[in-house]
Amino acid sequence: MTSGGDTTRERKGAGRPASFLHRTDLWITVVLLAICGALWYETTRWDTVIQQLSQNIPPTFFPRIILGCIIVMSLALPFENHFKKKQGTDLDDERSNRVVSITVITALALALVVALSQWLGTDLSMVLACLLLPVLWGERRVWVVLPFAILFPLAVRLLFVNGLKVHFLPGLLAPLLE
Asked: What pLDDT digit, counting tens, does each position of 57-111 carry?
């Protein structure tokens, strides 16, 4: 013990600078990179593609772009806490709060849309997501939700199908789209 009554352990902690890497975030990064690596490897095993989906862009293109973005953002994750502390924000304080239930409900709703997408098709899946999410998040103005649920999927369809020549799964709309 020292004259001030502090122990050796307290003195070590007080003089030690804050770590540049956040351990929890480092482990999360390792898990994310492992998942991305496994998914990237899975894209290398795709050998046959439906003729409708193989025009102009290989089927691995978009999944690999998304995986690449996740990898880049994951690599920054262990350093975020260090830089936020310099700005006066402690991310660990915010992390102690429980996940809001709307987050879980949103994830379940999107999982439902994805599960139905093979049957509904890409267009109707986008419409369903554009209807469902704003309502889940509290938007009650029908005159805002309905145009969004129609115009946004239409704009996406025009960009991808007409502009980029990427074909969507027709699903229930197959008779109308032929």
From this structure: 677 777 889 999 999 999 988 888 777 777 777 667 666 777 778 888 999 999 9
Distance CA 125, CA 112 (A): 10
For every residue of the chain, DSSP letters joined together read --TTS--HHHHHHHHSPPPSS-HHHHHHHHHHHHHHHHHHHHHHT-----GGG-SSS-TTHHHHHHHHHHHHHHHHHHHHHHHHHHTT--HHHHHTSPPPHHHHHHHHHHHHHHHHHHHH-HHHHHHHHHHHHHHHTT---HHHHHHHHHHHHHHHHIIIIIIS-PPPP-GGGHHHH-
pLDDT-based confidence at 112, cuts 50/70/90? very high
CA atoms within 13 A on the CB side of 112: 10
Q: Say what the pTM is.
A: 0.56
Top pLDDT among 81 and 16 is at 81
Instruction: Provide the residue ranges of all domains of the chain, joining segments of one domain with +.
Output: 1-97, 99-178
CA–CA separation, 170 vs 121, rounded Å?
A: 5
